[in-house]
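Researcher: Here's my situation. A collaborator sent me these components and asked whether they could plausibly form a single complex. I don't have experimental data yet, so a predicted model of the whole assembly would be a useful starting point for our discussion.
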Amino acid sequence: MSEAVMGFTIIKPHIHSFIHTTKLEANSCSRLPRQCSSTGLFNGWQQLEGRKSKRSSICKANALPDWPLMAVLVEHMDGQRDLITHKFVWHLSDQAIKNVYAFYIIFTCWGCLFFSAMKDPFYDSEQYRGDGGDGTGNWVYEKQDDIEESSRAELWREELIEEIEQKVGGLRELEEAGKKEELIK
Amino acid sequence: MATASLHPKSLSPFLTNPLSFPSPHFSKLSFLHPPHHSHCTKRPNLLHAQQAINNKKKNPWLDPFDDGEDPEMEYGSLFTDGKQDEDPRPPENPDNPYGFLKFPAGFTVEIASLGQKIRGDVRRCCCVVSGGVYENLLFFPAIQLIKDRYPGVQVDIIASARGKQTYELNKNVRWANVYDPDDDFPEPAEYTDMVGLLKSRYYDMVLSTKLAGLGHAAFLFMTTARDRVSYVYPNVNAAGAGLLLSETFTPDSLNLSDGGYNMYHQMLDWLGRPFRSVPRQVVPPLRVSISRKLKEVVEAKYKNAGAEKGRYIVIHGIESDSKASMQSRGDTDSLLPIEVWDEIAEAVRGFRPVFVIPHEKVREDVEEVVGNDASIVFVTTPGQLAALINDSAGVIATNTAAIQLANAREKPSIALFGSEEKGKLFVPNAEEKKCVIVSSKTGKLIDIDIEAVKRAIQIFDVSLALA
């Protein structure tokens, strides 16, 4: 911000008073430290102390408290029309620029992933939805082996039940045969 | 020692010096029991093979400090003898006051693994089965044998994609995974994935029926199982495999399937070996079990084709280039063109012939030759074929898995073979199994005598009369 103001105050005299004496140069240079020290307090219109023949005033508009957007410099010289200079300042600190770019990159990457995933047919496919899971995409199960394993286990139980039934049937037959024998006796 | 030398000794180190056992154990030793002896005399080829195993000298590189059984070693009464228990782990006790201890009070985890060390228990077993449907089907007795010998064992299978389908018929298997052991250059990702899978399952025993060289032996070694048992190449390719395996079998030829029905006899022999007081385990016959769901699916299929339950005869073995032909690797000449089948089917009286096609493209050929009203069922998996055979009156087939399935379900069958030797190899004890073997005189299946087949078809009429 201070640089901007310094740009106004330093360059302008150069443009308009190239042919002035060296004293003026020295004078303008000597004014520098004072300018710098005071710029931090600027807000709104401010009168710059110039030489008698020239007065100038600067108007700054801030977008945010520390973020100057536009400055208008009005220079008034005796016997001449006022010189009005607009300067738009789009000034961000290095840190702010970094933040902006970081945000941009993060949003782009996240957006690519998120918005592309919204349209991805894989997540609606049988491969993804079919094998269970809760649709969050954190796991894809292989259920086929489990199904086969459980069906074989069921087969084993079926056979076992059949065997038991056969044995029980055989026992019953034996018992009945025994009863009949008893009856005959 | 005289008794011991008369009998085939197991390779088990515990039996190498039987006299050193204390007397109570000695009285229980199995080779004193006569049934074991009679069993061996019944199967001379097995006896022979076993002697060959016994003559095999011990590999000193496996363990240079293994001087055999310690003669002064004394075993207590715990976990030393007999078979393992069905399930050593009692059900979890939800009322356990100790919370994180999931096992119930009184269950001693500390000694739970002793059985595996002292007695050689097998809790988890993995079988890597090479080959297609036929080879996997013939491995069923081995699985049953493992189940009988080690009660409560969990058997997992690694097989090729075709072979894995067979385990739909086996109730004794827990997991069946697809990994083609016959692939010499597997995808690196698949290979490492399978190694990791097997290692993380902590198997006690890994059996492999692929002829192992150094590569396959390394694969088995990486499972870190205690017993790594495999067939090895009968030639120089086996070099180095024995170092990584704890037990090896050398087959008679490069193709294990040449052995026919008893192709795994060396492995079965080793699996059923007597141990202390456990007698030799008898090899069970081939049996398959068919689930209700499968039966329903197949019933819909053959009803759709116009056949009734128990009133049709399955014809299997139509020539085609399909992968689902279910041939054995030991008998490549085992398919007949549809014209021959048509002649045979014409002789079938009282039953409806059902042609099983391995691929839909064969349907047209069959319709062309047999006629549009022919019953055609499209079956590719052994499970469906078994269910189809189960509901049939009988089977006429060449040397395909259908013959073995018919024998397993005790259905009458007619087996067409290229030569008589093959017939004896693949269907031993044919009469017991209600199987009639018709073999070609010239050694080529295509020259088979159709009149002989027609004469043999009468066995179905007999079964009809009985039914």
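Model: Some features of this prediction you could bring to your collaborator: Residues 1-50 of chain A have pLDDT under 50 and may be disordered. Helices of chain A lie at 2-16, 22-39, 94-117, 126-129, 144-184.
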